[in-house]
Structures are given as C-alpha cells and as structure tokens.
Amino acid sequence: MRIMLLSDEEVAYIWDFFNPDNFKDIDLIIACGDLKAEYLSFLVTVIHVPLFYVPGNHDVKYINNPPEGCDCIDGKLVTYKNIRILGLGGSYMYNGGIYQYNEKQMEKRISKLKLKLFLNKGFDILVTHAPGYKLGDGEDLCHRGFECFNKLLDKYSPKYFLHGHQHLRYGLIPRIRKYKNTTIINGFEYHIFEY
Fold first, then answer.
1. CATH code for the domain of 70
2. Is the pTM value of this prediction over 0.85?
3. pLDDT of 172
4. In total, how many domains does the chain have?
5. Range of the domain at 173
6. What CA–CA distance (Å, rounded) separates 63 from 10?
C-alpha cells in the first residue's frame, strides 16, 4: 500500500501545480494536522482515495469548517484494508488552546481506547500531530513530545508512528528515525512511503 503523509504546510507542487500522474499510485492519504481544510478537501477530491486526519494545535477552524470528504480519526482506532490505525491529534499544552493537552490529559485520552486496543490486539500505525518525547520533538514547551506516545510504542510495537508539528526546517531533524521496532516518520509538507 502506498501512503501519502502530510503535515503542517501546504505544498505548492501539490496544490497549485497538481498533476494527477504524479499521485496515481496513492492508496491512502494521512494528514497529521495544521493544514487548511480546503487543502485536504482538494486532495481527497483529485486523488480519489480515503483521507484520514488528526487535528494539529492550529486547527481550531476544523470545529466549524472540517475538511469535506475526509475522515477525522482523532481519538479513534480505525481499520483500513486490515491495517489498524490509531489517531491522537493535538500538541502539548502551551497556551490553553483547544487542541492542546498536558501529559495526564493525553494519557486519559489513550486510556479511553484501552478496550478497543485490547479487542483489536493493538494497532499498526500511530497517527499524531505531536511527536513522542525525545523522538523528534523540540526543546520548547509548544513542541515538546508526549511520553505516553513512547509508552504506546513500547507496549504495542506498531510498524509506523506518523506525526507532524516539528517542522523539518527547525534544525537538523531527520524525517525518518527508528525506535525499537517502529519506523517514525515526520510528515512535514509531504512524504510518500510504502506500507
């Protein structure tokens, strides 16, 4: 399965100069937050595949204007073509915004999914906006990662952990890293990979 991953900044190559031949092999789009709803709606219209997304810390407009034709997987475990995908949007609490959580709040969100995770025997892909703690996060409070995400990786050992929030231009941040048995991919702008 060929997955297109997106996060944080719209890309003119895709939006302004869209060429369907460049994306004809895409099977699924996953968006990790902080993207315009119109951008996501455009993509699902022109690529004709499902688009799953979680909100980022700047996606307050999604409340009244969600991306049309797209599926919000925030706080959900969904299955697509036998791939179990867990979505947890938002960032670390830094100014009290709607899609911001402290560590305990994010742990509580995860605990609500424990039965579903148990019944589904875990998950294959973790989709978040914020990274895990010390797994591609930043030094400031806004860009701090969640320790409870690391615990999810330790317990369920998913194949992939997809996130955004930490722009690759912030410094020498690798797009792809390994954590035990999990491949972590930062979706800044866009990245296409084979599942």
1. 3.60.21.10
2. yes
3. 73
4. 1
5. 2-194
6. 20
Contact by Cβ (8 Å): 11, 40 = no
Instruction: Name the nearest CA neighbour of 74 among 103, 92, 99, 97.
Output: 99
Q: Which residues of 123-132 are buried (b: 16+ CB within 10 A; e: fewer)?
A: bbbbbbbbbb
pLDDT in tens, 94-139: 999 999 999 999 999 999 999 999 999 999 999 999 999 999 998 8
CA distance 102 to 93: 5
Residue 39, token pair as written in the block: 């951008």
- Concatenate the DSSP letters of all residues of 51-93 into one string: EEE---TT-GGGGTSPPTT-EE-BTEEEEETTEEEEEE--EE-
Regions in the chain scoring below 70 on pLDDT? 171
